[in-house]
Amino acid sequence: MNFLKNQNLPLQLVLLSILVLGFFNLKETSSSVSILGFHGIADKLGPKSRLLSSTMDYPKQDLEQILEYLISNNYWFLTTQDLYDYFLTKSKKIPKEHLKQKPIMLSFDDGYKTIHTNLLPILRRLDKKYNKKAKVVLFINPGNLAKKGRASLTHLGCQELREGLKEGFYDIQSHGLYHRELTQLNSRELVKELLQAQIKLRECTKDLDPDKKVAAHFAYPYGTYNNRVKSYVSKYYLSSYLYNNKPLNYTCSANHYEIPRLIVSGQTPFVQLLEVAEGLYQIKEKC
Predict the structure, then answer these.
(1) I want to staple 252 with a disulfide (CB 3.0 to 4.6 A). Which of 205, 261, 265, 287 is the partner?
(2) What is the distance of C-alpha 159 from the center of its chain?
C-alpha cells in the first residue's frame, strides 16, 4: 500500500494501517468486520477537567487521524442497519458501490457531550475535504436528553443529536433508558428500560427518521446480558451489541443479539492496541 511508504506520516497512522490490514487481509478474514467501541472524545491539548479524565476517553487528535485514513482509503462506514441487512441476515445484496470497499463500524456509547464538541467538527472538516461522510453509530441513553443541570453539561441533548442526524453523520441507536444493568432488573423495570429508550429516541428524531431506523438496534449497558435479557431485547430491537473485545465473524454469528465489539480505551497505547488487534486477528473461530 502506497500509504505505508510515506515516511513523513505520523507513527500512529502507520500503525493503524497495519492494524487495518491485519483485520482485513482478504485471504484470512474476508468474513470479518471490525466494530470499534469508543466512549467520550478528549482534547488532549485542551484544559484538564473531570469530563476529560475518564480512562475511556479517546484523544480527538488521534481519532481525526484514524478517520482521515479510513476516509482517504475508501472504507465503508457501516450503520447498524447496514450490518444487519448485508452481513447478518443477508436479506439484501451489497450495493455495487460497496463491493470493493472494506467495511468498518465506529460506535460511541453513552452519548457524551464531547461527541458534539470534539467529534462532529472533525466529521464536518473531513466531509468538506474529501466530500465523503464518515457515519458513526451512537448508542444513547435518552433518559439524559431531557435533563437539565449536570447531565446537560456532560451528555448530548436532543437538539445536538438531531443536528448530527440531519447532516448525515449519526446512526442513533439505543443503550437503554438510564444505562442500568439489565440483568439486575425485574420484568417491569426491564421493559421500561428497553421500551422507553426507544420511544424517547424516536420522539426526539421522528421528523428526521420516517423509516424508524433510529432505536432499531441496541447495545447492552456494561456489556452484561443473559438469556432472559436477550429475550426481552428481541421484542423491541432487531439486534444487540456486546462490548467484549472480539471481532465479528459474520459467517459464524447466527445470534444477532450477541454482536461483538472491540474495546477502544483512551489509556491504551497505540502499539498495545495494535498488538491486541493482531492477537484477535489470529483467533480461529469454529462455525
Answers:
(1) 287
(2) 20
